[in-house]
Amino acid sequence: MSDWDSLSVVLAGRVRRDVLLDLQRPMTPSQLAARLSVPLPHISRALHDLMDIGAVWCRNPRRRKGRFYQRTSKGNRLVKKVRQLTR
User: Fold this and answer.
1) What residue ranges do the domains of the chain occupy?
2) Is the CB of residue 57 less than 8 Å from the CB of residue 26?
């Protein structure tokens, strides 16, 4: 998927956009939910969608709870584009 296609996915959902922008360091879904004041299931869905486009990855995927997510290099590129387009 091209960066432009991925950017469309990010911008199509407020929670996806906010999660990607807020994920400046590795965080758990619970931490993101608390920081963004968004229900945990919405955060989990957004992370899943962002993983599907290669914007984030899970640092400890074998854990059932307490998984840490962080941006990929593609995710960092998308953040720059989002910030440019939403100024």
Assistant:
1) 3-82
2) no
**Does the pLDDT of residue 87 top 90, yes or no?**
no
CATH architecture, domain defined by 3-82: Orthogonal Bundle (1.10)
The angle at the Cα of 47, spanning 24 to 14, to the nearest 5 degrees, equals: 80
Q: What is the pLDDT of residues 21-51, one digit of tens each?
A: 999 999 999 999 999 999 999 999 999 999 9
Give the C-alpha distances (Å, rounded to integers) separating 78 from 17, 29, 70: 10, 20, 13
All residues at 6 or more sequence positions from 11 whose CB lies less than 8 Å from its CB, including other chains: 17, 82, 85
Torsion angle of the four alpha carbons 24, 40, 37, 61, in this order, in degrees rounded to the nearest 10: -10
Distance of alpha carbon 84 from the chain centroid: 17
Q: Does residue 66 contact residue 27 with C-beta atoms inside 8 Å?
A: no
Other CB atoms within 10 Å distance of the CB of residue 27: 20
